[in-house]
Amino acid sequence: MNILLIEDDIIEVMKLKRTVSKLSLTHSIIEAKNGEDALQYLRSDQKLPDIIFLDLNMPRMNGVEFLAILKKDDTLQYLPTIVLTTSENRSDLLKCYQAGIAGYVIKPLKYEDYEYKLNVVLEYWNVNQLIKG
Asked: What are the structural domains, with CATH classification, of the chain?
């Protein structure tokens, strides 16, 4: 699976890569530091990702702003987008589901809990029928 990770925190990027490696998964991870970089990648000639992991709190363009643009695009709107965030704010949750996300995962503090949650999410999307571009 090709995963686009939109995350500005290098520690969170390293944590996701470590988890994928530790779980012996062969998924490739494409990194974007913010929504603008992600849109630039998605609109390039590169192969589209199978899923997107999106942080909400980023500079320049936050996750909700990115979702609004993504979901208006005729080609990109169907990409499953899973929010990976520390925000437990109900307003954020509602905005994201209204925009059409595929899931909302709160990043736990303990690494073991993070690894468990990521494993469950990745297993689900690994067996789910994805749109291949």
From this structure: 2-126 (3.40.50.2300)
